[in-house]
Design a protein that fits this description.
single chain; mainly alpha; Recoverin, domain 1; two-stranded antiparallel ribbon
Length: 90
């Protein structure tokens, strides 16, 4: 249950934007966090996220994503950074 599909972004129509959901983005974020720290997506979750989206963790795409999400620490996303970043990318 992704909050939106990156692969179809270029082909989306204006009405598709209404399907964006911060609730789904939060649920997606939770798929990559640990019960010990549910508010931070760390290195293990980042590795799983990269695997799920088909991008190597070392790929420059991840640096660009971290920049777009305004991540304060490399290899980590807070829930706030994740949500703001995805809202900005929609």
């Amino acid at each position: 249950a992704k909050c939106f599909d990156f692969s179809s972004r270029r082909h989306s129509k204006p009405e598709d934007i209404s399907s964006f959901s911060t609730k789904r983005c939060t649920a997606w974020f939770r798929e990559y966090t640990s019960p010990d720290d549910p508010d931070t997506l760390g290195p293990d979750g980042m590795e799983k996220f990269c695997e799920d989206i088909g991008v190597e963790p070392e790929n420059v795409v991840m640096l660009v994503l971290a920049w777009k999400m305004n991540a304060h620490q490399m290899g980590f996303f807070t829930e706030q950074e994740w949500l703001k970043g995805l809202v900005d990318l929609q």
